[in-house]
Amino acid sequence: MSAKIIDGKAFAADVRGRVAEQVARLKADHGITPGLAVVLVGEDPASQVYVRNKGKQTVEAGMTSFEHKLGDTTPEADLLALVEKLNADPAVHGILVQLPLPDHIDEAKVLATIDPAKDVDGFHISNVGLLATGQKALVPCTPLGCLMMLRDHHGSLSGLNAVVVGRSNIVGKPMAQLLLRDSCTVTIAHSRTKDLAAVCRGADILVAAVGRPQMIPGDWVKPGATVIDVGINRIPAPEKGEGKTRLVGDVDFDSAVEVAGAITPVPGGVGPMTIACLLANTLTACCRAAGLPEPEGLTA
Ligand code: GUN
Predict the structure, then answer these.
(1) 48 among known catalytic residues
(2) Are 218 and 173 within one domain?
(3) Residues 149 and 266 in one domain
(4) pLDDT 10s digits, 139-153
């Protein structure tokens, strides 16, 4: 039997719609417009695309978008000064410094300078610690998007066996913390895990976030499991013509879809949820700054 396909594009559109509704209410009732500042250093083409999409979707949600584009030789001190300025600006409720940064800039130092209350990426060590100790944090956007999809599909996640393959700070570790908070039994697996196939086969929820194309085959998936594929990998696609490529996940979709109960496709699964959750986090940060209740259904 074929799995239910979890439509991340439709889900993300719904999240953006709910954000826009609550932004409109915030404006009407309190005269507040959430603002998101995005800082891009250098000319990385993929980052430029991300930043453009973020700006567009921010404005579509009724928020103010502030874009700061700095040259790739910008001194670290100038970037830190800009972050401090954004920290102090009351019209800015969320700050995102696009990664990766050029080699001469200390990424950890930059992330540590962002006001944790405006850290809509959830990368500041304070937010990492708050999440790990079960307190109110801003949480990284991609794992938040995965959690929303899982809650929507399962209702309660309590007692389910969750396996997260990948231990990055951006996805694997925060994903594991969020699943633990929803009372899953959580295993974090990685490149050194012994008998990864057997570990994956025990998962009711399998989250793949390793960045290796089609690494997880269908026979590693427990029948009926929910598979969340965070990977976005470009591989050659000679069937489309010479030099052509296509996007695939970390899971071998064609075999996994025959075994899983539900699965996210690539593209069109987790990917669109990241920016939607960035908007949700900006709204959350704005509500907290104003001392208003948290937006409904948009937080961890
Ligand atoms: N580069 C690619 N994705 C992201 C993201 O989600 N946040 C930041 N800050 N940089 C990124």
Answers:
(1) no
(2) yes
(3) yes
(4) 999 999 999 999 999
